[in-house]
């Protein structure tokens, strides 16, 4: 039996079929896919809570860090595009890593790690959206109350789960509105900041990649920036519902990542031009501003009334990303179930809405339960769980990029294009991601990293590495029930084991 598709003649073992899972094909176009990719990153929220931290580390070189942090993301995006062109399956990482490195790696990294990272992100986004919404409504006392924030966050999770349950077309329409509001708000903020009296002229020196004061600050800043690009791959999980599933999702991946880069650089240049990087007042180097730069700069830049609009945009950003997370997570597990790696319930499709009915409700409920548990344990514990996602992101992004190189290794000599886009660029991206994983693990091990520690080991490290480690016994238990998937190896994701009736 052929255990690796590239060991045989080309196409002897065909890519997994995209049809048969019951999803509504052709319901998403290029614009909707790009909107989903952008929304899943929560650009307004991400830049608001990250730019200040980056500036504390590297000062006016924050735009350079944003640019350098984008490099491994772009290289990994090429891997996603090439793999999706070959295998447009909503299982994405799970299917691709399984085909390249076998079912155990596929289930653990492509399935478990991706799912855990998404669930933690969903809990965090729901909490952020709830807190910002209460603050926007002027209910500041409730915004600082854990019980009130958690209760509203659960309601937000229920709302976005209901939208995702109704169908992808409805979810895409909602995303258009939510994304437009936050992008317009960021654009308005940037234009107003540049126009303010006393704003400094932007300088190309802020993009100087050689200006960092040593490798430590450089690595820390780039790792922070790596996080704010995470999430664009959610758009690929709807590839089976996208028109021209082999081409459009790949195009949307590249477009969305480039738009993110432009948005972040524009906002960073505008903020630095207006406020500078000083450690006092509205300066971006002031630790008091680092938690939310937009909240600190919006009143002096836009005035009190319009600052409330920007605050609403950050709230919308979190809710928009939450909606995309619900949509993407259930489709990934739909694929795992359809290929015989999870219970059949996850492959259940609503007959009218054409959405994964059980999976959508399950992940909305799972995120709510996780949020409540972490909130009850400790707000600091929830904060460390959010920080730990950096390890999970670097893990599955890196493995997917390397899966691209290994899967296509027999084709790399076919043309210069194949060598570059299927080999060199994904390889560099994968190595960068794994380097980020190692560096993150090293930094997170310190008890001073994050909010908690246990016997001298950082709580962020324990949560991140622990999440991956827990996946191993879970996988071994699952393996006893789904023997065919784990026995037949890479060939098991070629044919569906569960199809629509």
Automatic annotation (TrEMBL):
Going by the UniProt record, its keywords in alphabetical order are: Cell membrane, Membrane, Transmembrane, Transmembrane helix
Q: What is its main location?
A: membrane
Regions that span the bilayer: 30-54, 60-80, 107-136, 142-164, 176-195, 215-232, 253-275, 309-327, 358-380, 386-407, 419-437, 457-478
Membrane topology annotation: Multi-pass membrane protein
- Alphabetical list of InterPro entries matching this protein: AA/rel_permease1, APC_superfamily
Subcellular location(s): the record lists: Cell membrane
For the region Disordered, give the residue spans: 1-20
Q: What is the recorded name of this protein?
A: APC family permease
């Amino acid at each position: 039996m052929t255990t690796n598709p590239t060991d045989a003649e080309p196409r002897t073992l065909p890519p997994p079929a995209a049809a048969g899972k019951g999803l509504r094909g052709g319901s998403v176009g290029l614009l909707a896919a790009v909107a989903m990719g952008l929304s899943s990153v929560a650009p307004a929220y991400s830049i608001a809570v990250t730019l200040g931290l980056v500036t504390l580390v590297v000062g006016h070189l924050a735009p350079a860090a944003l640019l350098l942090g984008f490099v491994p993301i772009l290289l990994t995006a090429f891997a996603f595009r090439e793999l999706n062109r070959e295998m447009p399956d909503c299982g994405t990482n799970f299917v691709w890593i399984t085909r390249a490195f076998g079912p155990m790696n596929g289930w653990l990294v492509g399935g478990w790690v991706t799912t855990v990272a998404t669930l933690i992100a969903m809990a965090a986004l729901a909490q952020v959206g709830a807190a910002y919404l209460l603050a926007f409504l002027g209910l500041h006392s409730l915004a600082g109350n854990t019980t009130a924030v958690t209760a509203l966050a659960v309601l937000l999770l229920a709302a976005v789960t209901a939208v995702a349950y109704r169908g992808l077309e409805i979810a895409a329409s909602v995303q258009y509105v939510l994304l437009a509001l936050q992008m317009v708000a960021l654009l308005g903020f940037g234009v107003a900041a540049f126009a303010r009296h006393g704003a400094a002229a932007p300088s190309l020196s802020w993009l100087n990649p050689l200006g960092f004061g040593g490798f430590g600050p450089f690595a820390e800043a780039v790792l922070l920036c790596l996080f704010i690009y995470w999430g664009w791959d959610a758009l690929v999980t709807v590839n089976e519902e996208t028109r021209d599933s082999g081409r459009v999702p790949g195009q949307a991946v590249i477009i969305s990542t480039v738009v993110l880069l432009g948005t972040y650089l524009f906002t960073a240049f505008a903020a630095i031009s207006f406020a500078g990087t000083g450690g006092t007042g509205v300066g971006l180097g002031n630790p008091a501003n680092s938690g939310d730069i937009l909240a600190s700069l919006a009143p002096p830049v836009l005035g009190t009334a319009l600052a409330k609009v920007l605050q609403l945009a950050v709230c919308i950003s979190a809710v928009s990303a939450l909606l995309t997370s619900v949509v993407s997570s259930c489709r990934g597990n739909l694929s795992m179930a359809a290929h015989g790696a999870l219970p059949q319930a996850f492959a259940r499709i609503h007959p009218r809405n054409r959405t994964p009915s059980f999976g959508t409700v399950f992940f909305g409920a799972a995120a709510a339960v996780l949020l409540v548990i972490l909130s009850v344990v400790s707000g600091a514990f929830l904060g460390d769980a959010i920080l730990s996602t950096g390890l999970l992101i670097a893990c599955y992004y890196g493995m997917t990029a390397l899966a691209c190189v290994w899967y296509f290794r027999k084709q790399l000599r076919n043309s210069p294009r194949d060598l570059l886009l299927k080999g060199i660029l994904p390889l560099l991206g994968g190595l960068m991601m794994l380097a980020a994983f190692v560096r993150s693990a090293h930094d997170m091990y310190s008890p001073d990293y994050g909010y908690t520690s246990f016997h001298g080991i950082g709580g962020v490290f324990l949560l991140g590495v622990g999440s991956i480690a827990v996946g191993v016994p879970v996988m071994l238990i699952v393996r006893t029930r789904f023997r065919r998937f784990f026995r037949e190896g890479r060939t098991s994701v070629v044919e569906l084991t569960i199809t629509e009736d």
